[in-house]
Amino acid sequence: MTDLHILRRPDHLRVLTESGDLTAAPAGTGYSCKDVQIDFAPAAAGLDVSVRAGETPVRFLELRWQGSFREGARFLGDAFERNYGNLEWRGFVPDRLMPWYFLVSDGRQTAGMGVKTRPNCFAFWMADPQGVTLWLDLRCGGKGVILGGKTLFLATLVQDGAQQEPFSFMQAFCRKMCDDPMFPPAPVYGSNNWYYAYGNSSHEEILRDAALLAELTEGIENRPYMVIDDCWQPLALSQGAAGRPYENGNVRFPDMADLARQMKEMGVKPGIWIRPEETNEMFLDNRLRCERDRRYLDLTEPEALRLIGEDVARVTGWGYEFLKFDFATIDAIGTFAFQPLDVIRIRNDWAWHDRSQTNAQAIMNVYKTILDHANGAVILGCNVVGHLAAGLMHMHRSGDDTSGCNWDRTMIMGINTLAFRLAQHKAFFHIDADCVGITEQIDWEMNKQFLELVALSGTPLFCSMKPSAVTEEMKPALREAFRLAARQETKMRPLDWMDNSIPASYEVDGKVYTYSWMQKHGMNGFSA
């Protein structure tokens, strides 16, 4: 598909600093300018890139390789963190930023270029008819990183190509990018109360949810998880998605440990939600707060990480065996990455307290802290950077929120995510395409299709079931979906994904399934 070879020193390199953009000159096996030296070293897995710098605040490195692609080339990139319903195959779009890796294919031959998981910088690719550009984002907050004479390993570049259709190639390429994925000890499935309660719940209502889940999974040896989403924490009654403190529940959740105990007695595994990086503590020392916004912790401060670790140990210590942590990217860099360009455009007037750490390093500090203090709980990261999270958590909420109110949103976020990130499943972590929101507001015939698709995909299945909306007619389909999800043995691939951003045709263990995603009137316009 291409004559490009990126596992060598690039043809051109620029260093973007706080004071201006510099063209680097070849030096040895790398490039240099002022007090900045960029080195490239062949490695067993690909090509290692590292940088050494003095006091120059380095913001980006721009690496360029000249070359061409075959006629008919179409390109697919990843999302920066969650997918926001916009993954798709496209032709040449020279200004399109493709985070972490990209594939190029004509449907029969496929090639891939990327960086291995857990790099110490952000990475964005651009492809055009004359070559590829790789942007390595070294920023500390919105400013340049100051290494003070140290050498920082940045990333390992990888490349591969084969006479192969793109989905199976993508699965193999994702495994090539990740040496040490982390998976749950058993298939994960169950219920989450968010998409019908939307924060309005209680101890008693969670037990009611647990009873319904236990009924629908009766006889299944691998028991389901009942996840309590945003609603239980002390400040949940006064503000949405409230973060710290997490020392107890609110008046509707008087005893979190006892609630976990009662859930276990009902035959479901208890799960809980937290927002670890936001703090509402009035008297917290300023040195632990982020310069960008004092509501958030500085992720390079060891004491701030200790507080996160204590919170995680406390809530899992109450008996919760599943931990969903949320808002981890927006609370770190100040924006959701609806588009990759949103990351490039973060505010440039702040930095982490430790100016020698990049944003990637600061973000991974949190993931490592949570893993180290989770008491063995299964960890699901929501609004986390998947490429930095691989190997540090069991599951990745791989798309933005589905809905219990708006079918279009479920279709755009859930189905697009499942199809275009399915190849990461069991390569980076287990992917979670988000919940089937079962309420009176969503047509059951539409939801039933999504329920079946997720169950057949071999990925985790969560349903958000309003008990009064679950009819006897629905229960056989729910029981069958949970039965499949408890085992997750089927293998699926999208068939029409190169031509349809919401694929309707899938192959599951050799059998083709075709779905009708559109409602009779089409879509509801711009409501998703």
Short précis:
This protein has 528 residues and is of the alpha/beta class. The chain has helices at residues 166-177, 194-197, 203-216, 256-265, 302-317, 330-333, 340-344, 359-372, 386-389, 407-421, 444-457, 475-485; strands at residues 12-17, 20-23, 25-27, 30-33, 36-43, 46-53, 58-66, 74-77, 98-99, 101-105, 110-115, 122-128, 131-137, 151-162, 189-192, 225-228, 269-274, 322-325, 378-382, 395-397, 430-432, 436-438, 461-465, 492-494, 505-508, 511-514. The chain is globular.
Descriptive overview:
By secondary structure, the protein is an alpha/beta fold. Helix content is 23%, strand content 25%. The longest helix is centred in the middle third of the chain and has 16 residues, at 302-317. The protein starts with 11 loop residues before the first strand and ends in a 14-residue tail after the last strand. The mean pLDDT is 97.
Secondary-structure blueprint of this entry?
Elements: E1 12-17, E2 20-23, E3 25-27, E4 30-33, E5 36-43, E6 46-53, E7 58-66, E8 74-77, E9 98-99, E10 101-105, E11 110-115, E12 122-128, E13 131-137, E14 151-162, H1 166-177, E15 189-192, H2 194-197, H3 203-216, E16 225-228, H4 256-265, E17 269-274, H5 302-317, E18 322-325, H6 330-333, H7 340-344, H8 359-372, E19 378-382, H9 386-389, E20 395-397, H10 407-421, E21 430-432, E22 436-438, H11 444-457, E23 461-465, H12 475-485, E24 492-494, E25 505-508, E26 511-514
Parallel strand pairs: 15-16, 15-23, 16-17, 17-18, 18-19, 19-20, 20-21, 22-23
Antiparallel strand pairs: 1-2, 1-7, 3-4, 4-5, 5-6, 6-14, 7-13, 8-10, 9-12, 10-11, 11-14, 12-13, 24-25, 25-26
Helix pairs in contact: 5-8, 10-11, 11-12
